[in-house]
């Protein structure tokens, strides 16, 4: 077959890779660990460790090989496992912590930077395992470096478990306190979900759902820089035309993910799961979702119009991406984490972006209030209430929402938290201090919404 | 044109200011490593040199990562930006 790609197309691809930060954000291997159950936590942990090492020993090498051969940076290789609360049901809190340590050791052994699945799904209520796991979260996140935890507290079909929402406020506070010497970094590894998905490749919310196969590969693409450059090159187009340009760009970005997924799947002999179409920013300059929104014509992200701009961006990414991949899934939308996006940080510092506007934006983007530092003395009830608001948005709008807040110990509004690396740094943001305590302490369950009479 | 097994072709791009010996310098490296040039497309616009080269690495004595390193060193020496990519990425990105 002759080479039929035009010179312009070649140069476009090269530019995306060389100057616009096009990369594969993550190859995440999902591993079923249901068969690792043993008599006690220690033995179960050991079995999990051996299974992960057996399945994932080549993951990092294959990722690195593909990166070298194809010249596409693959930033992260990660692992997700079946929610630990399911396979460790009936174990004590200490046994849960022990399993967490084995997960951490397994991640170190195979060389991945994060492992997700220290998770519980409690949208309708708690099993004994769920309770023990949730209690074990603060110590686990404080004593491990690579373990990520998530708790699903609501779904559109089940409603919101307000007992869990209440408890997660306290768990987040305790996790922050146990990692106070590192600005509460434990909380950066903990996500509270509504409508969590089973095949999400992105941390900290990745876990290997019970409907998933024995082992699978999910790909997280990236490319805010590429979209940014495309938008900047068309300053005068109307929004319909701009949406088309973003779709075209998303298509190309996603094809790269599809290719890497297929190659990795073949080399590891593991079925290819999905490509997640999310635009994931990094702290690198130019790799920012906020910059895209601003290049669409907003003086600062957070200005009125931000929600509309994000809605258009998010939808165009999905439309373009869906055409490019045989299987799409995961979260698939634009991420708007504050600490991991320099443009978001700048907007917060300039006073343009508040937590209220971020909440509004989560109604149209895929994730939620992500990587937001709040004052360390924020009461647990306020954190719970923020979770409840986000869960309500997800429940009513039939979408995934999440909360990853860091109540940074000892920090006040305007101070900074530093996590380093991909987790970045962030200014501490103001929350509404009026107390929702009485509402939150009612607990119970918010019933599932009606599915007709939509308005 | 001889048919080349798919997946064995690479695309080399060269960008920079035009000067004597760009193609000669790169071709010499490819010849030394048994890489066969299949196609060259070169333009010079206002002194700015752009080249896209398709090459066959079936009999190459070095792998693509090593070639990338050798050419990037050559690029630094000649003040050019040289990239080496597997052809699959272009096919995937621009064709279904």
Quick description:
The complex is a heterodimer of chains A (455) and B (96). Chain A is α/β, with parallel strands linked by helices. Chain A has helices at residues 7-19, 41-56, 59-70, 84-87, 93-110, 128-143, 162-178, 224-232, 239-268, 289-295, 306-324, 342-349, 355-362, 380-397, 437-441, and strands at 24-31, 74-81, 114-121, 147-155, 159-161, 190-194, 215-221, 272-276, 328-329, 368-375, 401-408, 416-420, 424-427, 445-446.
Task: Characterize the structure shown.
- The complex is a heterodimer of chains A (455) and B (96).
- The longest helix of chain A is centred in the middle third of the chain and has 30 residues, at 239-268.
- Chain A has helices spanning 7-19, 41-56, 59-70, 84-87, 93-110, 128-143, 162-178, 224-232, 239-268, 289-295, 306-324, 342-349, 355-362, 380-397, 437-441, and strands spanning 24-31, 74-81, 114-121, 147-155, 159-161, 190-194, 215-221, 272-276, 328-329, 368-375, 401-408, 416-420, 424-427, 445-446.
- In chain A, α11 packs parallel to α13.
- Chain A starts with 6 loop residues before the first helix and ends in a 9-residue tail after the last strand.
- In chain A, strands 1, 2, 3, 4, 5, 6, 7, 8, 9, 10, 11 and 14 form a twelve-stranded mixed sheet that branches. A two-stranded antiparallel ribbon of chain A has the order 12-13.
- The model of chain A has no long low-confidence stretch (mean pLDDT 93).
- With 455 residues, chain A is an alpha/beta fold.
- Chain B is globular.
- The mean pLDDT of chain B is 88.
- In chain B, α1 packs antiparallel against α2 (64-78).
- Chain B has helices at residues 22-32, 64-78, 87-94; strands at residues 9-17, 36-45, 48-56, 80-86.
- In chain B, strands 2-3-1-4 form a four-stranded antiparallel sheet.
- By secondary structure, chain B is of the alpha+beta class.
- The A-B interface holds A 1-5, 7, 9-11, 13-14, 17-18, 68-72, 252, 255-256, 258-259 and B 1, 3, 6, 9, 11, 13, 38-39, 41, 43, 50, 52, 54, 63-65, 68, 81, 83-95.
């Amino acid at each position: 077959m002759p080479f039929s790609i035009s010179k312009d197309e070649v140069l476009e691809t090269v530019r995306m890779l060389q100057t616009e930060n096009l990369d594969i954000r993550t190859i995440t291997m999902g591993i079923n660990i249901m068969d690792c159950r043993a008599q006690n936590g220690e033995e179960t942990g050991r079995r999990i460790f051996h299974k992960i090492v057996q399945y994932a020993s080549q993951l990092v090498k294959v990722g690195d090989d593909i990166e070298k051969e194809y010249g596409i940076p693959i930033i992260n290789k990660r692992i997700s496992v079946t929610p630990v609360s399911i396979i460790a049901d009936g174990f004590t809190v200490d046994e849960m912590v022990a399993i967490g340590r084995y997960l951490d050791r397994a991640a170190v052994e195979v060389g991945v930077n994060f492992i997700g699945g220290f998770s519980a799904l409690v949208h309708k209520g708690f099993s004994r395992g769920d309770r023990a796991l949730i209690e074990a979260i603060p110590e686990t996140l404080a004593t491990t470096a690579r373990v990520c935890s998530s708790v699903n507290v609501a779904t559109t079909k089940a409603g919101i478990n307000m007992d869990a929402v209440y408890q997660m406020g306290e768990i987040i506070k305790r996790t922050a306190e146990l990692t106070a010497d590192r600005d509460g970094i434990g909380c950066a590894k903990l996500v509270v979900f509504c409508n969590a998905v089973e095949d999400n490749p992105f941390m900290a919310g990745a876990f290997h759902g019970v409907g998933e196969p024995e082992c699978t590969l999910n790909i997280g693409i990236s490319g805010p820089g590429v979209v940014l450059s495309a938008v900047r090159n068309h300053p005068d187009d109307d929004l319909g035309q701009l949406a088309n340009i973003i779709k075209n760009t998303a298509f190309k970005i996603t094809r790269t993910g599809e290719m890497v997924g297929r190659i990795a799947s073949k080399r590891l002999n593991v079925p290819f799961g999905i490509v997640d179409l999310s635009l994931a920013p990094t702290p690198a300059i130019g790799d920012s979702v906020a910059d895209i929104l601003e290049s669409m014509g907003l003086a600062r992200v957070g200005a009125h119009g931000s929600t509309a701009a994000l809605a258009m961006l998010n939808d165009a990414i999905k439309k373009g991406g869906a055409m490019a991949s045989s299987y799409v899934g995961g979260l698939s939308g634009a991420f708007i984490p504050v600490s991991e996006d320099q443009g978001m940080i700048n907007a917060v510092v300039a006073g343009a972006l508040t937590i209220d506007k971020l909440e509004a934006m989560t109604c149209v983007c895929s994730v939620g209030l992500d990587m937001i530092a709040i004052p360390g003395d924020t009461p647990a009830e306020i954190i719970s209430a923020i979770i409840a608001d986000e869960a309500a948005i997800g429940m009513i709008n039939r979408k995934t929402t999440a909360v990853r807040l860091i109540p940074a110990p000892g920090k006040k509004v305007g101070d900074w938290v530093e996590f380093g690396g991909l987790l970045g740094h962030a200014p501490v943001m103001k929350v509404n201090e009026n107390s929702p305590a009485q509402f939150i302490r009612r607990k119970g369950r918010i019933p599932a919404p009606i599915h007709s009479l939509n308005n | 044109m001889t048919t080349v097994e798919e997946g064995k072709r690479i695309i080399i791009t060269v960008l920079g200011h035009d000067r004597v010996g760009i193609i000669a310098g790169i071709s010499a490296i490819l010849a030394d490593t048994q890489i066969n040039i299949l196609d060259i497309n070169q333009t010079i616009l206002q002194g700015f040199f752009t080249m896209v080269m398709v090459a066959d690495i079936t009999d190459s004595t070095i792998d693509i990562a090593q070639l990338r390193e050798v050419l990037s060193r050559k690029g630094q020496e000649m003040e050019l930006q040289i990239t080496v990519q597997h052809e699959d990425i272009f096919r995937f990105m621009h064709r279904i």
